[in-house]
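Researcher: Structure prediction, please.
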Amino acid sequence: MKRILIADDSFFQRKILGDIVDELGHKYEAVSSGEEMLEKLDDSFDCIFLDLLMGGMSGIEALKELKKRNNSVPVIVITADVQKARREESLELGAAGFMNKVVSKDELERILNDVLSQAK
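Model: Predicted structure follows.
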């Protein structure tokens, strides 16, 4: 069982992602902003799901801060922004995976398993 931190400003998206993570047998905590994610994050988390388009600190700003802090917890970006440049920027800033919304359980499970297996 892994521990996942979900950062998304949409209650609906946090609920959907949390339900999928729960169905996959993992535990999760959810926050509604990049600032909260940075405050909550510690080494006990195995992965972060991070939305890019949030009020306050954006996901890109959060990725930049995580990079400054030499974050070792893998980040999977989940966003409605489908621009190729946004995907490339996220990966350059250290994201281990990238998914477009609307997320399916199968896709989330595949990417999460890939990212967690690489993090070992």
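Model: The chain has a mean pLDDT of 93.
Researcher: Thanks, that helps.
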